Batch of 2 targets.
Target 1
Amino acid sequence: MAERLNGHTLLVSLIATPIRHSLSPTMWNEAFAKKGMDYAYLAFEVGNEQLEDAVKGIRALDIQGSNVSMPNKQKIIPLLDELSPAAEMAGAVNTVVNQKGHLVGHVTDGTGCMRALREEGVEIKDRIVTLTGAGGAGTAIAIQAALDGAKEIRIFNIDDEHYETARENVRKINEKTNTLASVTPLTDQAAFKQSLAESSVYIDATSVGMKPLQDESLINDSDLIRPDLVIFDVVYSPAETKLLRFAREHGAKQAYNGLGMMLYQGAEAFRLITGEDMPIAHVKQALGLN
Ligand code: NAD
C-alpha cells in the first residue's frame, strides 16, 4: 500500500458510525492494489452531526466518491445535488459520486441483490416475488425489483415502525412502475403461505437469522419450501441462517445468503465511482470468503 500512495493518489471515503468493523476498506483497497489503481479508500467515523461538514469535505478535498452507511443514508439526501431514480424512490443513498463538485447519490443494495440472483441464473423480470422486510435492505430490494420489471412484489412485515415504510414503498412502486406491489401483516400467515405458493422467489430482507435472532426463521413449515422456489436471505453472517438450513433440508435447490449482495453492492459502487470493474474473485479471496 505505502508504495502505491503518492501526491496524485485519489481518495474514496466511507462515512458512517460505527464503522471500524466494516469489510469495505479491505474490499476496495484490495481491488485498487490488484488493478494497480492509484486510489485509496478510508473509513471515517461520521454521524449525523458531522455529516454536513463531511459532505463539504468531499467537495473541498475532491474526494472521488463515498460510501454512506448508517446513520447517514437518509440524512445525506438534502446535502446532495442529484439522486439516481432508485435512490430517489428508496429515499436512501449508500454511494455518492463526485462529478467535479456535483454530488450524485445512488443506492446499490438493490442492484447488488439483483445481480447476486442473476449470477445464479435467477431473473426477477416478470416474476412474482415475496419479500419480508421493509427496512433499509428491504426497501432497496423492493424498489430495484420493481425497476427491473418484477411482475408482483408482495411485501410482508411485522407491525413495527417499518410497516409504514412498506406501505410507502408499495405506494411509490404502484405509482411509478408497472409492477404490482402490496403489503400484508406477517401475522396473516395464510396470506404469506399463499403468496409463497404463487411466487418464484422469496427474499428475506429482515434481520431475522442474524444475531441476536440467529435461532429464528420466518419459515418453519416445510410445506412452504418447493424445489423451484428460489430463497434468498440478505444475512451473510452466519453464512447459513436457520432459514437457509431449513430450506435446504426440505428440498430447496436454490437457497442463497447475502454474501453475493454484499459483494455486488460494493462492485456497483466501485464501478459508479471509478468507472472500473471490481475484481470480485480477488476481493472474495482477500476477505477469506472462498
Ligand atoms: P432495518 O433495521 O432497517 O430493517 C429490519 C427489518 O427486519 C424490518 O423490516 C423489520 O420489521 C424486520 N424485523 C426485525 N425483527 C423482526 C422479527 N423478529 N420478525 C420479522 N421481521 C423482523 O435493517 P436493514 O438495514 O434493512 O438490515 C436488515 C438485514 O439485512 C440485516 O441483517 C443486515 O445485516 C442485512 N443486510 C445485508 C446486506 C447485504 O449486502 N447482504 C445489506 C444490508 C443489510
Target 2
Amino acid sequence: MAEETLPGTADDDGPDSIVLHVDMDCFYAACERLREPELEGEPVVVGMGYEPGEGHGAVATASYEAREFGVESAQPISTALERLPRIDDLGPDDDPAAAGHYRTVDLEFYKSVAADVKAILHDCADVVREVSIDEAYLDVTDRTAWDLAASGDRTLAEGFARYVKQRIAREVGVAASIGVAPNMSTAKIASDFDKPDGLVVVRPGEVRSFLAPISVEEVHGVGPVTARKLGSLGIDTAGDLAEADASVLEAEFGSRGRELHERARGYDDRAVTPTGRPKSLSRESAFTDPRDDIEDKREVVRALAADVADRARSRGAMYRTIGIKVVVPPFDINTRATSLSGPVDDPELVESVALDLLDAEFAETTVRKLGVRVSKLSFADADQSSLDGWESAEAGETGGDGDERVSDEREATAGDDGDDEPPNTGGEAPSRGGQSSLVEFD
Ligand code: DCP
Ligand code: MG
C-alpha cells in the first residue's frame, strides 16, 4: 500500500521539516509575576470582573498552583472564588495556604511582554507564525537538524529548542513550553504534553508511536462533537484513529475525515506560513537609566521616526496614523497617535508629528522607553512581489550557543494578525542586523 510510507522516511524531495510550537505557561499569570516577583510559587488567578459587586467575570488564566485547587481558564470567577478564596478576604482563622492572589487582566502589559517574546522567536527562525498572544509556530529546518549532537543521543533540534527556551526565560523572564516535531500538528501536541516548562521532541520516525496513546480530542481539528462521534465508533485515541478505515471516516466526516486520519498517522504537510502583513511598523528604544531631559528624548524620537519611516518606504507601505509610545517607570505604557486625512509616505511628517506628540504631554516626564509607530498601513504593490525583507533577513545568525546578547534597542515586527490570514501574504521582515531585535507595540 503506497500510503504506508512512514513519516520521516522522506519520500519527498527534501529533508524532514523541523517545526517548533512555542506556548507560554500560564501566560497572564507569568506576566503578573514579572512585576510582582513575590507571586512566584503562589496560586495566582488573572481574570475580569471579580471585584466586589461585579461577580460576573471569568478566569482568564490560573497559575499551576491555582489549578491544583480546580481553578481554570473560562471558569466563572464565582466558582474560582469558591474553590480558592481570595487571600485579601481571609479571616484571622482561615488558612492562607488555601487562598489565592487575584489580579485583573492588563492586556497592554501582557502584549508588551508577548512582543518581547516574539522578538526572540523572530530572531530564532526565518518563518514564524504567530497564532495568539502567547503561541507561535517556528520553522527552523534551515537553522538546525534532526541529526544527533556529537555528545550523545539528543538531536541538534532539541538543543536548538532548549536555546530558544533559555533565551525567553533569561531575557524576558517567563517560561515557555516547546514541542519539536516534523510537522505543525504534532509539534502542537508535543508542546502541551509536558507543561509547564516542557520540552518534548518527537523525531521523524517517532511521530506515529508518540501520537498513538493520545486522546482524539488532542488531535488538531477534533472538537468535542467530532470526539463524541468518534467515540461512538470506538475510536478514542489517535492510534485508534490511525488504524480506522479511511473510507468509514470519510463517509462519516467527509474530506475532513480523511484529513484527521492522516494527522493521526503523523502526516501533516502544511507549511508554516508567516503571519500576514503587518498592521503597523514600530520601533522602540529603552534608556539604560530613565531620562527626563527633553532634548535626550527628542533625539531618540527623531532617530526612531527616521527608522520607522525608512522601513515603511522600503516595504512600500503608506500610513495614515503616526503615534508614539512613552513608557514611564516601571511599566506605565502611554500611547498617543495622530490620524491623517489620507495615507502618506512622508518621513519628515513622521518626525514632526512624533515630536509634537512628545512635546505636548511628555516634555517633563521621566521615561524609560520611547517608541514611534506608523499604522493604518496600505501597500502600494498589491502583487507583493518584493518581499525584500524576507530575503535580506537571511543574513542574520542565531547560534545554539546561548551566548547572544539582546540590546535595549528593539525593532518592530508584524502585528499579530491572528491565525486566519491567507497564507503566504508576505510579512514584515525581521531584521537581525546590528543590535536590534524585534518588538511591536499595539
Ligand atoms: N486566555 C483567556 N481566556 C481563555 C483562555 C486563555 O483570556 N479562555 C488568555 C489567558 C492566557 C492566555 O490567553 O494566559 C494564553 O492562553 P493559553 O491557553 O496558552 O493558557 P495559559 O498560557 O494561561 O496556560 P498554559 O500553561 O496551559 O498554556
Ligand atoms: Mg499558554
